[in-house]
C-alpha cells in the first residue's frame, strides 16, 4: 500500500467518525478536498506504472451514440448484447467469459446506437484489479451506461459498482454543476452565490480552495451546490453520464421481490436477457435516457428527408452543432437557416447559428454565395 493510499484510509476513518453539523462542516470540507486530491494522486501514480491512463479498448466509435455495459462477471451482459443487437458475444456460466470489448449496433427511431459488451469488473477495479481500469476507461466514453445487475444477487452490488465508477470520475445521472470557477493570479477570492445556498458559503469555499493552495480565484455558484460538486469542478476531469440500472435474470426471482426493488430504486428496469423479457421496453428506455435529438434535413425546393435524421447528443442542439455534424466547414459558408418544428415560432422561422433545435425539427441551411 502506498503512502497516499494509507492517508486515504486515515481520512476515510476520520470522516466516518466526524458527525456532520455546522460546527464540523469546515473540517469535513477540508477532509473531502484532501481526499479527492489524494485519490487523483493514486490514479496518476497507477497510470505512470501501467504506462498510461485506463484508455479503454480499441473500438472505433460508429453510429450516433454509444452505450456501455458495466457489471460484475456473469450477470448476463453478453447474453443481453445478443438480445439487443443480434451480435454474438460468447456467454457461459463461468466468470470472465468476455475478455475484451465486443461492439454491436442497435437501430432505433432512425438512430444507430453502438452497444458495447465489456468484461465484468470486480470490487477494486478502479485500483487496477483485473481489466477494471480499461473497462471503466471505456465507460467514460459512453453516452449512456447500463449498469447490469443480477436480480438473484444482493442489491449491494449496485452500490459497489457505483463506487468504482465514482472513484474514476464518472458521475451517474447527475448534471454538471452550474459553477463557474477560474483561477487567477491575484485579487484574492471573488465569491458570488446567485442562488441561496444550503451548504456552501465564502468561508467554506475558501477552506476547500486552501487545500488546493488556491488563494486567488473567481467562483460563481449558479445553483444550490454541495461541497462535493464544488470539489468535482475544481478537480475537473469528471464526466456526467446518464445510467440505467438493468436487473437481469428476473425469470429467477419472485414477483414480490421484483416489486420491492421497483418501489425503492429509480432508473430501474427488470429484464431477462436470456428469455427476451422487456427487451423492447429496454430499447425505448435506452433511447429516452440518451436524450438524442433527431433533426431532419430539407433540401431547397424538396421534401424533408424523414428516413435519415441527423442525431445530436448531450443537449448540444444549436444550429451550429448541427452544421458541425454535417461538415467541418459548413459553418464557414453559413448565412442562416430555415426551421420548421417545435423550436420554431412560425413556419419556417429564419434563425442564426445560436438557435436551439428540438427533437424532430426540420432544417434547411442557407449558405452565403
Ligand atoms: N436465468 C437466466 N440466466 C441468464 C440470463 N441472462 C444470462 N444468463 C446466464 O448467465 C450466465 C452468464 O451470462 P453471460 O452473458 O456470459 O454473462 P456476462 O455478464 O457476459 O459474463 P462475463 O463476460 O463473464 O462477465 C450464462 O450461463 C447465461 O446463460 C437471464 O436472463 N436469465
Ligand atoms: K459469464
Ligand atoms: Mg460477457
Automatic annotation (TrEMBL):
It holds the Pfam family MMR_HSR1. Residues 291-367 form the TGS domain. It comes from the Eukaryota. It is found in: Plastid, Chloroplast. PROSITE patterns: G_OBG, GTP1_OBG, TGS. GO terms for molecular function: GTP binding; GTPase activity. Residues 65-291 form the OBG-type G domain. One of its GO terms (cellular component) is chloroplast. The keyword Transmembrane helix does not apply. Its main location: plastid. CDD domains: DRG, TGS_DRG1. Keywords: GTP-binding, Nucleotide-binding. NCBIfam families: small_GTP. This is Uncharacterized protein. It comes from Guillardia theta (strain CCMP2712) (Cryptophyte).
Amino acid at each position: 500500500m502506498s503512502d497516499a493510499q494509507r492517508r486515504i484510509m486515515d481520512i476515510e476513518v476520520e470522516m466516518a467518525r466526524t458527525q456532520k453539523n455546522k460546527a464540523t462542516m469546515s473540517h469535513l470540507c477540508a477532509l473531502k478536498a484532501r481526499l479527492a486530491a489524494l485519490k487523483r494522486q493514486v490514479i496518476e501514480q497507477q497510470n505512470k506504472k501501467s504506462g498510461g491512463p485506463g484508455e479503454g479498448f480499441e473500438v472505433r466509435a460508429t453510429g450516433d451514440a454509444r452505450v456501455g455495459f458495466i457489471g460484475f462477471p456473469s450477470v448476463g451482459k453478453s447474453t443481453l448484447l445478443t438480445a439487443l443487437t443480434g451480435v454474438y458475444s460468447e456467454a457461459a456460466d463461468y466468470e470472465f467469459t468476455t475478455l475484451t470489448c465486443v461492439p454491436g449496433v442497435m437501430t432505433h427511431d432512425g438512430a444507430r446506437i453502438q452497444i458495447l459488451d465489456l468484461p465484468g469488473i470486480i470490487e477494486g477495479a478502479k485500483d487496477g484489479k483485473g481489466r477494471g481500469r480499461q473497462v471503466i476507461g471505456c465507460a467514460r466514453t459512453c453516452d449512456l451506461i447500463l449498469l447490469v445487475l443480477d436480480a438473484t444477487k444482493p442489491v449491494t452490488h449496485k452500490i459497489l459498482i457505483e463506487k468504482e465508477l465514482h472513484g474514476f470520475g464518472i458521475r451517474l445521472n447527475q448534471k454538471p454543476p452550474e459553477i463557474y470557477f477560474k483561477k487567477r493570479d491575484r485579487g484574492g477570492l471573488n465569491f458570488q452565490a446567485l442562488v441561496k445556498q444550503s451548504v456552501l458559503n465564502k468561508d467554506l469555499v475558501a477552506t476547500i480552495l486552501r487545500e488546493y493552495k488556491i488563494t486567488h480565484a473567481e467562483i460563481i455558484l449558479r445553483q444550490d451546490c454541495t461541497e462535493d460538486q464544488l470539489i468535482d469542478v475544481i478537480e475537473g476531469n469528471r464526466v456526467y453520464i446518464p445510467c440505467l440500472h438493468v436487473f437481469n435474470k428476473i425469470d429467477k426471482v419472485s414477483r414480490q421481490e421484483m416489486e420491492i426493488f421497483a418501489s425503492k430504486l429509480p432508473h430501474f428496469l427488470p429484464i431477462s436477457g436470456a428469455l427476451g423479457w422487456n427487451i423492447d421496453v429496454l430499447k425505448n428506455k435506452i433511447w429516452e435516457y440518451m436524450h438524442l435529438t433527431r433533426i431532419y434535413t430539407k433540401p431547397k425546393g424538396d421534401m424533408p428527408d424523414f428516413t435519415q435524421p441527423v442525431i445530436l447528443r448531450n443537449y448540444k442542439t444549436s444550429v451550429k452543432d448541427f452544421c458541425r455534424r454535417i461538415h467541418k466547414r459548413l459553418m464557414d459558408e453559413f448565412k442562416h437557416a430555415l426551421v420548421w418544428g417545435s423550436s420554431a415560432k412560425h413556419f419556417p422561422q429564419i434563425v442564426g447559428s445560436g438557435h436551439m433545435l428540438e427533437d424532430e425539427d426540420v432544417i434547411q441551411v442557407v449558405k452565403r454565395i
